[in-house]
């Protein structure tokens, strides 16, 4: 860099580090690099309905996918709408902004697909309207806050003969797919799965507010089904709009219970309450037990969602069998495999690429002590083979999954949807399967209210 | 970011301030998911897995942070270089960085056998600037933001009797305060993490052992410059401060006293 004095004298510090100030930062900056894949990929014209936090995450992930073109964005809150419009504009997507989804669907004619990321109570309204106009739909989970709403979406997709993918994105995560297809099914490393536990523990959070001057007039809120700004911003906590924490957080993981077991539960018992927050309607903590009848036998599964403590390690699903256990999470640091002592050795599965021996952290070989190093003279006594070293109880051996998600967390699930649109790839979470998960999840709130065990019949999960 | 963040808000009702701070902290979580090399799915972790010649599309925030980092790398003659530990191909011109950026297409391309981007010395400052932007959207004009106790950014100060948010630097007899007002002060040293700073130009441990501070208009700049000031000679620091009047530096001398430059110098 010795030859860079002119650059170092640039006015790099006076512009608040705006992008334009550093365009000249050669030799780092190149322009017009060929984006080969993007140029060649079939274009899919997309609209986004719902530009809040989830919509923004989906838009960011979809921007990484070649050929996806945002033609329109829709939100009733100008604050969110403008932010998303600006994001898309940076990537040269000239998305038309709309307040009203009906106007958007009527105006933008050449849409192939619609992404729905609105509050749960509007999912079926937005999804069904798009399907009826012949658009494929990717809709955020939970499918709906009512079984009827979810059912209507499956019916609408069938009638329209269009694709409906629901955003249970773990199903497209390569680590989850590897865990199910290779470790649990092909290798049967867990043996017979007997139990599951799962959790999402989240610390106390402030209610969502909004910047002064950015409130939506109450008449407009009422027109779109919201009582006031507080409920609009904190819709997840109110019964009219959503299913509460078990639906917002638990649905992702309870869906994975069904997906991993390839089964739906036959009973549900749950306890929960509005025990902490004063300005919410939904249960802020819940403990749930499901019972599954699988072809291998009964699986009893527990799940807990807590919204007042982060203690106990975040969010994960823990599948426990008689030969091994799989702790898995969207967060790789909460993912681990454990072998029961009675199980066959797992080394052969390392060679097959199913699992890996950790280099560091839990399960890694203990550091060699100086007196254990080769060449160090050992003390006399019986041979090692004839000796039982008495120690504290051994830990279960710990192993890793040798698969890394190399993309934004939601990207593979969106890619699966766009592959289905373009070339008929099977959806990883079609409406029918997401319906079964919605039925599983929504039963929890019913069970808490009823204060008794509720049962499912197999027909409950079928549309 | 593996550190703590604090936001102090004055001159606003508490409930409003809390909600604004909560919005800023949600922005922090989002940025961490994009910038942290310890999160497998972050853009930086993914960039570090690229093969030589491969590209990825990055987010606007990642692109902006990398452009700021590139800018500061050039301005400090590589005393700050978040990609210095990259494994370079033998035929890569030593004058060329191990990655390129195409801001129009949001593309990052690796020129390294193994790219090793670590935004540790600019990311938390960049995050503070983004958090301040969120507070700005909320109309907050009087706030002080702190990342890990080592980078502090102040937005205005509505109290007429104060010239800014007071922050302390130096130790013992040399302790002094500086009023931050729309700018940022960042410190670097080896008291907390030990000798963790390396001169990117030589790969050797940084020669300095006493604390340094950088004053700059943005927290990203202050954060990166405090790392660079740990490496640069007093003459190089004086030169940089002379070129950029908004920059200040403080170095702890062997006798514990502070040597002050630019905007931190007496009378500046």
List the helices and strands and how they pair.
The complex is a heterodimer of chains A (463) and B (268).
Chain A: H1 5-8, H2 36-40, E1 44-49, H3 53-62, E2 68-74, H4 78-90, E3 96-98, H5 101-107, E4 113-116, H6 123-132, E5 136-139, H7 147-160, E6 164-166, H8 174-186, E7 193-201, H9 218-223, H10 229-233, H11 245-261, E8 265-273, E9 285-294, E10 297-306, E11 315-321, E12 324-328, E13 336-339, H12 347-351, E14 397-399, H13 411-423, H14 431-450, E15 454-455
Parallel strand pairs in A: 1-2, 1-4, 2-3, 4-5, 5-6, 7-10
Antiparallel strand pairs in A: 7-11, 8-9, 8-15, 9-10, 11-12, 12-13, 13-14
Chain B: E1 5-9, H1 14-35, H2 43-47, E2 55-57, H3 60-75, E3 99-102, E4 107-110, H4 123-137, E5 143-147, E6 151-155, E7 165-169, E8 176-180, E9 184-188, E10 212-216, H5 219-229, H6 234-243, E11 248-252, E12 258-262
Note down, in words, how this protein is organized:
The complex is a heterodimer of chains A (463) and B (268). With 463 residues, chain A is of the alpha/beta class. Chain A has helices at residues 5-8, 36-40, 53-62, 78-90, 101-107, 123-132, 147-160, 174-186, 218-223, 229-233, 245-261, 347-351, 411-423, 431-450, and strands at 44-49, 68-74, 96-98, 113-116, 136-139, 164-166, 193-201, 265-273, 285-294, 297-306, 315-321, 324-328, 336-339, 397-399, 454-455. In chain A, α4 links the parallel β2 (68-74) and β3. Chain A starts with a helix and ends in an 8-residue tail after the last strand. Chain B is built from 6 helices and 12 strands. Chain B starts with a strand and ends in a 6-residue tail after the last strand. Among the domains of chain B are: 52-115, no CATH class; 160-262, T-fold (Roll), CATH 3.10.520.10. In chain B, the strands form 3 sheets. A 7-stranded antiparallel β-sheet of chain B has the order 1-5-6-9-10-11-12. A 3-stranded antiparallel β-sheet of chain B has the order 2-4-3. In chain B, β7 and β8 (176-180) form a beta hairpin. At the A-B interface, loops of A face α1, β2, α3 and β3 of B.
